[in-house]
Design brief:
Helix content is 36%, strand content 18%. The chain has 8 helices and 10 strands. The radius of gyration is 17 Å and the shape is globular.
């Protein structure tokens, strides 16, 4: 029988991954350092918002809500929206577990799973978070891409919960380091300005979510640079 505490914690609904001894050491060592780095770097950043007409800034909307964003902007988002109890779907992989333990230290609820593999259990965890009036966030192209191609996780959660709309956003810094990763991961440079863009909310439809995320990318101040990164599914 499942323990009482686990049944009421969406993050505990999925099986426990077995990691090697080396991985367990890294999982203990990296997340506290990564969370500290995000807090220290984030303290130097400035944030501003650009929203479509009539569209409120996402985290100011009372939950429950569903939002999608690109994996590349995870670091800036982790700092900006820390300590809000936002539920975020994170892969069960080793890399995903590092991210999960890091964002948990920043006040997020990490729901382990995937919007493709083991989707039923993962979405149940997100649905419980939605029922708790939380903001539910998806890295739409995570965990491993293809970059800027939206996956159906947010749409499936909307269908499961009866949500009538899905929000999207994108974050872009005016000065960044870009990692040579599948998503061209963004690390804002200290004292840079990070712009968050908020396109109009859309109906729970995968094509509409893709279009909204593309629009969010185009809305950033350096949209000419980003235009080459916008995917056409």
């Amino acid at each position: 029988m499942q323990p009482e505490t686990d049944r009421h914690n969406p993050a505990k609904l999925n099986f426990v991954h077995v990691f090697t001894r080396k991985q367990r050491f890294l999982l203990a060592a990296i997340p506290p350092i990564a969370a500290l780095f995000i807090r220290v770097l984030g303290a130097t950043l400035r944030y501003r918002d650009i929203a479509a007409p009539g569209t409120p800034i996402g985290h100011t909307i009372p939950g429950p809500t569903i939002f999608a964003f690109w994996h590349c902007s995870l670091l800036a988002s982790a700092h900006r929206f820390r300590n809000l109890g936002i539920a975020i779907l994170i892969s069960r992989s080793f890399d995903g577990e590092i991210i999960a333990r890091t964002v948990e230290r920043l006040g997020f609820l990490a729901v382990r799973g995937s919007s493709s593999r083991g989707a039923a259990g993962s979405l149940r965890g997100m649905a419980e978070a939605y029922a708790q009036d939380r903001i539910c966030a998806f890295t739409a192209d995570g965990p491993r891409g293809p970059a800027r191609i939206a996956k159906p996780g947010p749409v499936h959660l909307a269908e499961l919960t009866g949500a009538s709309w899905i929000g999207s956003f994108h974050a872009e810094a005016n000065r960044t380091w870009r990692l040579h990763t599948w998503d061209n991961f963004m690390i804002p440079k200290p004292f840079s300005t990070v712009t968050f863009t908020w396109p109009a909310h859309v109906l729970p439809n995968l094509a509409a979510v893709q279009q909204a995320l593309n629009e969010a990318t185009k809305m950033t101040p350096n949209s000419l640079t980003n235009s080459s990164l916008i995917a056409n599914p």
